[in-house]
Design brief:
Radius of gyration: 17 Å
Strand content: 15-25%
CATH class: Alpha Beta
Structural class: alpha/beta
Helix content: 25-40%
Low-confidence stretches: 1-17
Shape: globular
CATH topology: Metallo-beta-lactamase, Chain A
Strand order of the largest sheet: 1-2-3-4-5-6-7
Largest sheet: 7 strands, mixed
Length: 260
Amino acid sequence: MVFLVGYSITESQIGEGREMPKITEDVLFIPGQDEFMPDSHSYVVGKPSSKDLSLIDPGLVGKRDYKISSIRKMGIDLKDIKRIILTHTHFDHIGCLQEIQKEIPWAELWIHALEGDPLEKGDDRSVYGIEMFQQVCQAQYGIQSGSFTFKVHRKLQEGETLEIGGMVWEVIHIPGHSLGSIGLYFPPEKILIPGDVVYADHAIGRFDLYGADGPELKKSLMKLSQKKVKVLLPGHNRIVTNLPDGYVLETLKQWDPYLA
């Protein structure tokens, strides 16, 4: 969760037939559509021929039509989306989940165990982060307490490899912005999907929310800095397709005084 202006595109542009950006043939990008609150970027990963695709981070409440229309504009059959993977369960990433599940009810839900367990129990502290924000969201969108209760089909852990869609992604547990934040890393093309842990322009995610922790975020950034990353696909703001060497470490150095 971050209050930054992201890459945005209007629903009318989708209606006019504008194509969604492709990162590669196997990684597709649906830009977040910020309004009163930020909407996370979404990604669809997997080789189209595999018919075993994954949707990463559905996004904000009310974005179902935009996200589903975007997927269809890419020429993707919804039946090919077999799972939804959440980088973390903050409101701007999970808010649209229930709406999306109505469109693809067969899709499994995969989340890190530290946020999957609370989600199954209806503990929404990791969704809202702070009580004041919870009150604003519930008032703005008419959400009832306990609405974010979901069955989690697979609870992810650090070090797992996900053989999905004809690709092999590494799961990296990167807490600090939230308890169960994960990054997804594709070594052959050096692609990193880090959720809200690190962004373009040397920005990082908030660490003042429920389950967040500055020192843990520092460790997570250090862990990510050990990966060779050329394509950075964050939850908000710009995507970067030619990331400079040492970018994550340089970002950490800039934020280090605040993460102690």
